[in-house]
Design brief:
Blueprint: H1 5-20, H2 26-42, H3 47-59, H4 63-76, H5 81-93, H6 97-110, H7 115-127, H8 131-144, H9 149-161, H10 165-178, H11 183-206, H12 210-221
Length: 239
């Protein structure tokens, strides 16, 4: 089973989006977009309308249009957290990691105690290859949200990806303790335990037994007796 921090962020962001919107067909989304465009023409300074339009753009996978609309919102309200968060998410989807990181950092300067943005920044750092920075953000998330199963699960996913299996096992255990009914967490922990068991079996099969070591040493030592008066190449008597 393959897990990534990006997958967790996607699930979190999708949950946030679904909580705010009703499921519609693609045609209904397009009709909604047309109606919002007409309203924006009449009220161009309405950030609420522009945020709704950008959300519809995301539903239609129109990522560039969404980024443009969030930019319009931020020109009107530079500290609009929704625009910063979802523009960062859109940039991440398009692999604009530097721009995504800048938006998440701007968000966290305004609202530092936010789990989703903290995990988003960790995701971007991971994708940029900034492993230490990603780990730092995940540690902050756990420190800021010690009761959050999601924070522990996010760190466990990252640690598993970095092959830090023992710390990951601890974090899955903590995530399950906080949310025991989460099947995905339990499956992830079992999967990790199986990986650890396989690694231990491979490790033990490649290590020679102590008896074999003793036998090899005995055979090599029986071919010649050691003269205690013989000198080593450096001229120092062996003792």
């Amino acid at each position: 089973m393959k897990h990534t921090l990006t997958t967790l962020l996607l699930l979190l962001t999708t949950a946030l989006t679904l909580a705010a919107q009703t499921a519609l067909t693609p045609q209904q989304w397009r009709d909604s977009l047309a109606a919002l465009n007409r309203q924006i023409d009449r009220q161009p300074q309405s950030t609420d309308l522009r945020l709704k339009k950008a959300a519809v753009n995301i539903e239609l996978n129109q990522w560039e249009y969404a980024i443009e609309e969030y930019g319009n919102v931020l020109r009107i309200e530079p500290s609009n957290l929704a625009a910063l968060f979802y523009r960062a998410y859109a940039h991440t989807t398009l692999r604009h990691y530097g721009l995504a990181r800048a938006d998440y950092e701007s968000f966290l300067k305004i609202a530092p105690i936010n789990l989703e943005a903290r995990l988003g920044l960790a995701t971007v750092c991971e994708r940029m290859g900034r492993i230490t920075d990603a780990m730092d953000e995940l540690n902050r998330a756990v420190q800021m949200f010690p009761d959050s199963a999601v924070a522990y699960a996010a760190r466990a996913l990252f640690e598993t990806g970095q092959k830090q299996y023992e710390p990951a096992l601890y974090d899955w255990t903590e995530a399950i303790r906080r949310r025991p009914g989460n099947t995905a967490y339990v499956v992830s922990k079992v999967d990790l335990l199986l990986q650890l068991a396989r690694r231990r079996r491979v490790g033990s099969s490649t290590m020679p037994s102590a008896a074999a070591n003793r036998a090899a040493h005995s055979r090599s030592g029986s071919t010649a007796a050691v003269d205690p008066t013989q000198k080593s190449p450096s001229g120092i008597n062996r003792c």
